[in-house]
């Protein structure tokens, strides 16, 4: 079985986020980047298939050379090879189209992507990728078993869980629960040294225009922020508080 794991290069959740150019661009200065957590769950599950069923695991990323350390970490965790599509990840559709080209060229049986990335939270790439490649698709996947040409998966639905079966080729949108957090792997020194010898192939992108663009960004108000009350709406606020007190 050939498995392709899609890896997003995202800011660490502890990083301080800022914007530049009038809040129209993300400021990467001083930001530590990591494997997208949803993708890391998927990579860990792929490693299980490799060790238990002899699958081959390739990781892929759409991005510039700055994303290669993240791919190297995935190789150190145990992936066999890496592919970097040499173009910026501008929007969900263009990323899905680049990934679809890799999938078609590689003939993969199973594509594991994260349900969404933690930076833009678009949640659209796995579904688009399945549509572009003609593969079956299961989103919000929290359990996955594969037996030759068939797969059985559990996904979260509103108010519960659903178990489904389907055939390969298959694209899943994985998330927390696909493996236990205790199963996530930290690269050891041997893995890091071996990763240097594993192939990291850079491929040029296919033509794919961005369908959406980011107009501006806005940070949420700091926790505990106080909203100032102007004299114009002070009376209204007093009345609201008075009426609320009467209800209580």
Count of DSSP-assigned helices: 6
- Which sequence of SSEs, written as H and E, runs from N to C? EEEEEHEHEHEHEEEEHEH
Label the overall shape. Answer: globular
Please describe the biggest sheet, giving its number of strands, its sense, and whether it closes into a barrel: 9 strands, mixed
E-strand count? 13
Helix content: 25-40%
Beta content: 25-35%
Distance between the termini: 63 Å
Structural class comes to alpha/beta
Strand order of the largest sheet: 11-10-9-12-8-1-6-7-13
Low-confidence stretches: none
CA-atom Rg in angstroms: 22 Å
Average of per-residue pLDDT values:
90
Summarize the structure.
Helix 2 (68-77) packs across helix 5 (189-195) and helix 3 (92-106) crosses helix 4.
């Amino acid at each position: 079985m050939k498995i392709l794991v899609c890896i997003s290069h995202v800011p660490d959740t502890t990083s301080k986020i800022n914007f530049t150019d009038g809040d129209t661009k993300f400021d990467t200065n001083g930001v530590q980047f990591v494997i997208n957590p949803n993708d890391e769950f998927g990579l860990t599950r792929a490693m299980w298939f490799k060790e238990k069923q002899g699958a081959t695991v390739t990781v892929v990323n759409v991005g510039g050379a700055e994303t290669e350390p993240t791919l190297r970490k995935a190789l150190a965790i145990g992936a066999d090879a890496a592919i970097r599509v040499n173009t910026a990840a501008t929007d969900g559709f263009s990323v899905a189209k680049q990934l679809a080209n890799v999938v078609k060229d590689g003939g993969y049986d199973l594509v594991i992507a994260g349900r969404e990335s933690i930076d833009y939270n678009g949640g659209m790439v796995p579904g688009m990728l399945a549509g572009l490649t003609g593969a079956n698709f299961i989103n919000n996947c929290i359990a996955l078993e594969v037996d030759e040409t068939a797969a059985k998966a559990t996904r979260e639905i509103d108010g519960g869980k659903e178990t489904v079966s389907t055939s390969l080729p298959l694209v899943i949108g994985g998330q927390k629960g696909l493996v236990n957090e205790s199963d996530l792997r930290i690269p050891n020194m041997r893995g890091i040294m071996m990763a240097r010898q594993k192939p990291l192939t850079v491929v040029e992108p296919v033509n794919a225009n961005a369908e959406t663009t980011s107009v501006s960004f806005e940070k949420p108000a700091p926790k505990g922020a106080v909203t100032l009350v102007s004299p114009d709406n002070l009376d209204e606020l007093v009345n609201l508080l008075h009426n609320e007190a009467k209800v209580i």
